[in-house]
Specification:
The protein is mostly helical. Helix content is 70%, strand content 0%.
Length: 155
C-alpha cells in the first residue's frame, strides 16, 4: 500500500541530529538564566541609603501607603541592607550561573553531567523572574539530554 502522508514507513520516527536537538533548549535556558542573573545582580548592587528610606517614609505622595509601610518596615529595611540583599539574591545569581554553564555545555555537547545539573537547577522554583519560563525549558532540556543519540554525541 502506498504511503500518501509523508511519514516514514515502519515504526521509526525521523531522528533530529543531536546538535540540532540540544540547540534551542540550550539557547532558551541561557537567555532565561542570563536575564535572571542580571536581575539578581542589579538588586545586589543597588544601594539604598538611610536618607532614601527617610524620604520614602516622609514623602507626602506615600501617605495612602503609610500604614502598609509601617507594617512592613522590617522588610523594607532588610532590602536596604547590602549584606542581607546579598544573602537573598546571591543564591539567585549562583544558581542561574550554574544553569547558564550547563546550557553552554549542552550547546557544545560537552560535559553532559554539567548540562544535566544546569537543566535540573532551572527547575528550582521561585529563583527569579524567568522561573515560569525556565521550568518547562528545563524539562524539555532533560528530555533531550536523555535521548540515546544525544547521550552518545557528548564527548
Amino acid at each position: 500500500m502506498e504511503n500518501h502522508f509523508g511519514a516514514p514507513a515502519g515504526n521509526e520516527m525521523p531522528q533530529t541530529p543531536p546538535r540540532e536537538a540540544v540547540s534551542l533548549p540550550a539557547i532558551l535556558l541561557m537567555v532565561a538564566s542570563a536575564l535572571t542573573a542580571l536581575w539578581g545582580l542589579l538588586y545586589v548592587v543597588q544601594t539604598v541609603s538611610p536618607d532614601d528610606l527617610d524620604r520614602l517614609y516622609n514623602d507626602p505622595a506615600m501617605a495612602p501607603y503609610r500604614n502598609a509601610l509601617e507594617q512592613n518596615r522590617e522588610l523594607v529595611e532588610i532590602m536596604a541592607s547590602t549584606g542581607k540583599r546579598l544573602m537573598i539574591f546571591g543564591p539567585v545569581v549562583v544558581l542561574n550561573a550554574l544553569v547558564f554553564a550547563g546550557a553552554w555545555s549542552m550547546r557544545q555537547l560537552k560535559h553532559r553531567g554539567l548540562a544535566i545539573a544546569g537543566a535540573i537547577a532551572s527547575l528550582v522554583p521561585c529563583y527569579g523572574t524567568c522561573c515560569c519560563m525556565a521550568a518547562p525549558i528545563g524539562i524539555w532540556a532533560l528530555v533531550v539530554l536523555f535521548r540515546p543519540e544525544v547521550k552518545a554525541a557528548f564527548r
